[in-house]
Amino acid sequence: MQFMLLFSRQGKLRLQKWYVPLSDKEKKKITRELVQTVLARKPKMCSFLEWRDLKIVYKRYASLYFCCAIEDQDNELITLEIIHRYVELLDKYFGSVCELDIIFNFEKAYFILDEFLLGGEVQETSKKNVLKAIEQADLLQESQMSSSKSGIEYPSSCRTRAALKVIPPTLLHWAMMSEADGDMAIEVEPSHQYSITFYCRITDGNRRAV
C-alpha cells in the first residue's frame, strides 16, 4: 500500500497515512485529485479505479470514504478487506465509530492504524491483539496523566477544573495558572484543532475570558 486517506462527503480530509516519501506539495496535489475523483463517482460504480501508475481502492462507510492506493500487482479484494478490518477495529474501540470520533480522537485512529499496518503491509491480523495493545497504551497514558495532574496547583479563585476535562488527555501538554491575577495559560498539541474559552473568577466577583 502506498497511502491511505480518510475524507468526508464534503471533501474534508480526516486522516492521511503515507508509506512512500513525497513532498508536502505532492501530497496535497494527490489528495486534492483523489478526493475530487472519488466524490464524483456514482454509488453503483466499481470501488476500483486506475490512477496514474497505481490502483485506487475505496469504500464508503456512513459519511466517511476510506481510500487506499496500491501498486498494479497488488490484490484489490485484499485491500478492501484491509479497509474493512480497520473499520471493524475502529468500531470495536469507539463503539459504532462516526466521523466525530475521528475528528476529536484522531491520535487514537492513527495509533490503531499503526498497530494494524506497518510500512503499508498488514503486521497484525488479530483484532484481539490490536485492541489489547491499544488498551495497554490507554492504561499507560492514564497513569502518566494522573501523575502529571498531581503536580498542577489550581488556585481557589479560578474555577476551571471542569473546563480542563473537555480537552482529550493526550493533547493536554501543560497547564499553568497564576493566582495573582486569575490568568491561565494552556498549551495543546496540535493547537489549531481546538478553540476553547476559559473563564476565571477574579477577586472583584466578575468573570473574564482568557
TrEMBL record:
The protein's name: AP-1 complex subunit sigma-2
Signal sequence, renumbered to the chain: none
Main location: membrane
Cellular component GO terms held in the UniProt record: AP-1 adaptor complex; clathrin-coated pit
Gene3D superfamilies registered for this protein in UniProt: 3.30.450.60
Topology class, membrane: Peripheral membrane protein
Family affiliation: Belongs to the adaptor complexes small subunit family.
Keyword Cell membrane: no
Keyword annotations from UniProtKB, A to Z: Coated pit, Cytoplasmic vesicle, Golgi apparatus, Membrane, Protein transport, Transport
Entry GO MF terms: clathrin adaptor activity
GO BP annotation list: intracellular protein transport; vesicle-mediated transport
Function noted in UniProt: Subunit of clathrin-associated adaptor protein complex 1 that plays a role in protein sorting in the late-Golgi/trans-Golgi network (TGN) and/or endosomes. The AP complexes mediate both the recruitment of clathrin to membranes and the recognition of sorting signals within the cytosolic tails of transmembrane cargo molecules.
Subunit (UniProt): Adaptor protein complex 1 (AP-1) is a heterotetramer composed of two large adaptins (gamma-type subunit AP1G1 and beta-type subunit AP1B1), a medium adaptin (mu-type subunit AP1M1 or AP1M2) and a small adaptin (sigma-type subunit AP1S1 or AP1S2 or AP1S3). Binds to MUC1.
Subcellular location(s) per record: Cytoplasmic vesicle membrane; Golgi apparatus; Membrane, Clathrin-coated pit
